[in-house]
Amino acid sequence: MKSLQVKVPGKLLLAGEYAILEPGALGLVLAVDRYFYARLAPLSADVEAACLVVSEQYPGVSFAPASLATLAWESAPEPLHFAAAACQWVMHYLKDSVSADVLAQGFKLSLNAQLQVDAVKLGLGSSAACCVAVVSALLHHYLPHRAFESLRPVVFKLAYLAHYAVQGSGSGADIAGCVYGSVTGYQRPDLDRLPFEMLERMSPEHMPNWPFLGLSKISWPSSWTLYFGWTAQAADSKVLIADFKAWQAEAPDATQDFLFQMQMAVMALQETLKAQDLPAFVRQLRAQRRLLLQLNEGMVYPPETPTLKRLADIAESLGGAGKFSGAGGGDCGFAWVPDHAQASLLSAWQAAEIVPLNLRLDTQGVRVCAEINS
After folding, report:
1. CA 214 → CA 9, 156, 184, 189, 280, distances in Å?
2. Per residue in 28-87, pLDDT tens?
3. Within 13 Å and on the Cβ side, how many CA atoms surround 178?
4. What is the pTM of this model?
5. Which helix (H) or strand (E) element contains residue 162?
6. Suppose 320 and one of 121, 337, 344, 372 were both cysteines; which one would form an S-S bond, judging by CB atoms 3.0 to 4.6 Å apart?
């Protein structure tokens, strides 16, 4: 068995917050150069299990199921639920195309994330990156003759299903960013239109098309620089999504208007990227933020917190634009300002207790970064 390592970039949502929860909706996703790593190696002979999953972030916690064929993610320790679900979906995908003897060969998966600071998550999609990392490592291991690039659509779908199984909500945009890199235009699929038995039949021979799913790469202008700031406050995306859904049920007209306006704004922002029109891009970023402020009026937990408000206000005061990314409620935001204002932005952020993050865009997405004979 060869040992291998994959690396998966973190992600941020450039545009389309909350609207991306609707099937067919468009969002724009960024991938950044903070990484989640998964290393796959032979299983030690003294381990009596089908596989062993460990994480540097959770020392003393491990998952060692007796069988891969009957693996169930719910039986794993909670910190390893996403990794176990990813293993489960890969085994389901491969069960009819890879021999039982090959699947029975034990392996050790060692996970390591750079997507947190002192055990506080940055909001860069660590759970999505975990699913993508585990799926990618296992597919590359069990399908060594398949070019990894050709496996990306499979990685996306299996990681999406694993992530959704555990979290029970989410758009899949973070999965898309982790798989494909910056900038990804992503349309959320509608799996309710896909009979469950078709999902059950997912295999190399039968990979159904997903209704509404759209994935496309958009070039980022090399002369444009985004700056990223962290609030040092972890957000609970699941709670915020549930809050939005409750508002949607209580005020369908207001939320429908928000969703429509957001989709128009995302498409307009996408066009500014394609045209490399920086002044229009800045205007559209500001428009995105103004739309998102509607959520503060309707939701119980305001997505734009006081710290995230300062992040955006400071950028605008310097002739730029900024906004929170993803569900808000903490985590990260980003901004663009003119080059001459960079130092002022970063110092003002620090004075406002916003931690500047030294991040650059990652254009490659998930990749195998090491493979050695063991």
Report:
1. 20, 12, 10, 7, 25
2. 999 999 999 999 999 988 888 999 999 999 999 999 999 988 899 999 999 999 999 999
3. 32
4. 0.95
5. helix 152-167
6. 337
